[in-house]
Predict the structure.
Amino acid sequence: MMIDERLQELAGLYVLGVLDGAELREFETALDRSAELRQFVAGLHPAVEAVAGSAPVAVPPPELRARILARIEPQKVLTLPDRPIAAVLWWWRALTAGLAVACVFLLVSDRQLRQTVAAQNQQLSQLQQLAQSLQTATNDLNHAVLALRESNRLANLRITMLNSLIADAPRTVAVTLWDYQAENGEFVVQNLKPLPADRDYELWVMDEHKVPVAAGVFHMDASGTTRMDFRPSREIKTPGQFCVTEEVKGGVDSPTIKNLILASN
Amino acid sequence: MNLAACIAFSPVFPRGKISPDLAMSLATIRVNPQDIQNDAAEAGRDMELFRRIGARDRDAFAEFYDRHATRLYSVAQRILNDAIEAQDVVQDAFVQIWEKAASFDPRLGQPSYWVVTLVRNKSIDRIRASQRRAKLADAAGAESALITEVAASAHESLHGQEKAGLIRSALVELPADQRHAIELAFFSGLTQHEISAQLSQPLGTIKARIRRGLLKLRDQLEGVL
């Protein structure tokens, strides 16, 4: 491809430094795209150098050289082509050696860490076994304590049977369960005849001096069975006999002997 | 490249002292091939120095300065017509060479071309900054006519007297209108339109003159630079 006259003109202005504006942009685009145009431009360089060299000789003053050399940086280590490669190789080797040392260190650390973890797992297993055995022992002790408590509780209880004292109610039966520690009791009676609404049965507890102490009034329900928790109206450490009388509604302070219904031995 | 014109304008052979016959015989003399080899070696030397300068070699920088400072200072002085400003421009240019040599792209041309355009552009920038362009442009017309009368040019600092004479003769052989347009473009800092106005010629004519002049110079300098 030939370089046309217009491009040749632009090339001439370009190498002389007077091309500007849109023409400069257009020419630089063409220059980027065409190797032939670049070669043409390069061929004009000697002509421009010839024009520049036509200037009358003017010798720069000697101090200019010294001034310029003083302006540039102090001499540094020369970076000839083989030097950077050697430096890069040195750094590469140093980096490789450093990585190798780091790898060995990490391997040793990893091994030690694994050993520590295994030992701790073993200790944990032993502790779990110990905890399990302790739990079993604790359960056994709990059972033992419960058994002891039960034995102790039974030891504190007194069961007393009350017998019927009236001829027309031979099947009537009653029981008191007295807790020495709590100083109260439970009364259960069966097959006792119901009373009129203005009458109550009243439970009595004999104290250490065989004085009767009121322990509560009760009615018989339709099933013929009555259960009642009771506590004597005054403190009794060791109760004697238990008995039941028929009294007026709400009970009385002292039992009516002629109306005695049930009594323990 | 013939030597007739060169000798005609050489200080050894003052103008008007050479006969037409001698000029005709000298026209058949060709440039020694050894000179061409030397030119290639010089170009290679500049590239080598640039490579070393890029590697921060002060000795190479000093050698490059010694090879080109006079030519570059002459260009700056020619454009600026002021010694102090020319020194400033040359100093700026060499500092830039020191800083940019490592990134120099050979596709831009030879280092000698790059540095001369660097100094030229810095000088033109100074002219434009100081608003002295019109004044200098007026002077440029008169000075360009004096070039052929100058006994020595900046080429001698780099190429020696013989080759400088060849280059100068190539310039002298250019038609005056072409040489004038080229020199105004390079040294004055005028735009194309301003050159057109300065020379009272259409812009197309100026472009054509510059193109033809540069092509002729290129052809005449083939093997010399």
Observations:
- The radius of gyration of chain B is 18 Å.
- Chain B touches chain A through 71 residues (CB under 8 Å).
- The domain at 132-225 of chain B is CATH 1.10.10.10 (Arc Repressor Mutant, subunit A).
